[in-house]
Amino acid sequence: MSAFTLFAPHTVEEACELLGRHDGDARLIAGGTALVLMLRQGLVAPAAVVRLDRMSSLDTISIDDGMLQLGATATLRSVSESAVVQDRMPVLAEACRLVGNVRVRNAATIGGNVCEADYASDPPGVLVALDARVRAQSRTGSREIAVADLIRDFYETGLAPDEIVTELRVPIPPAGTRAVYLKYLTRSSEDRPCVGTTVVVRLDQEGRLADVRVAVGGIAGRPLRLPEVERQALGEQPNEDLLRSMGDAYAAAADPVDDVRGSAHYRKRMVAVFVRRALREAIDGRSGARKC
């Protein structure tokens, strides 16, 4: 492990200043479940590491103005066990509960999970389907970024070198909305998805699709979402032909990676299967997350 200077600022402003001073050669650390491994394996060698654990204001969970607000350093366990999240957004609480094991969830943070941009993690795809955004602060101000735009590729985000994600903001879905996350596992020796599919659905009084959102993670550098396919399904009466066509559209658009959890060809086939399956479960009234 290369030597680095460790900083422990007490404010976000001070942390942003430290990041800017090192001009891209500094890394943030919150729970450390990802960065510590990368440091030990020599995958990264920053000149500075900036701790965020001295900032208690970043770990809150609340609802305000129709938004679920998750402080960036709230742990995955605290998100999964929060009564607010369980009540208003059970799919997110249960998806966080599926990450790793309890030791990982005790340390890993929701902000760190998103900013790592690990393609084989559960929350990012769920957050993309839920239209979540992050609030990022830099030395010159703050901005909001959709999670779908924040994650650009494998372990790559759109954050500037001096930006820090301080909060995630997730719109509370209207009454009657169902959301399902299916985590498809192919290996018993680990707990990372081959395909992770999130579906958000709301039906109108006639049983037609008033809202439908689909995001597929675990297959490529960023969660796959196809707004045009979603728009075409709006107003339709859900049936097996429609669900099959949506699954096939996602499979056709997918450009999956080959790894130990599945080949690109196999992943394409499973995308079609699990998009269709998650849509059917949500339409049938189920909500939540589970392993398959």
Could you explain the architecture of this structure?
There is one protein chain. The protein has 292 residues and is α+β, with helices and mostly antiparallel strands. It folds into three domains: 5-51, 2-Layer Sandwich (Uridine Diphospho-n-acetylenolpyruvylglucosamine Reductase, domain 2), CATH 3.30.43; 56-171, Uridine Diphospho-n-acetylenolpyruvylglucosamine Reductase, domain 3 (2-Layer Sandwich), CATH 3.30.465.10; 178-291, Enolase-like, domain 1 (2-Layer Sandwich), CATH 3.30.390.50. 35% of the residues lie in helices and 25% in strands.
CATH topology of the largest domain: Uridine Diphospho-n-acetylenolpyruvylglucosamine Reductase, domain 3
Q: Provide mean pLDDT, rounded.
A: 94
User: What is the CA-atom radius of gyration, in angstroms?
Assistant: 19 Å
What is the string of SSEs from the N terminus onward?
A: EHEHEEEHHHHHHEEHEEEEEEHHHE
Poorly predicted runs are: none
- Helical stretch tally: 12
Instruction: Report strand order across the widest sheet.
Output: 4-5-10-6-7
Quickly give the structural class.
Answer: alpha+beta
**The level-1 CATH class of the largest domain:** Alpha Beta
What is the CA–CA distance across the termini? 38 Å
Number of strands: 14
CATH architecture of the largest domain: 2-Layer Sandwich
Sheet with the most strands, sense and barrel status: 5 strands, antiparallel
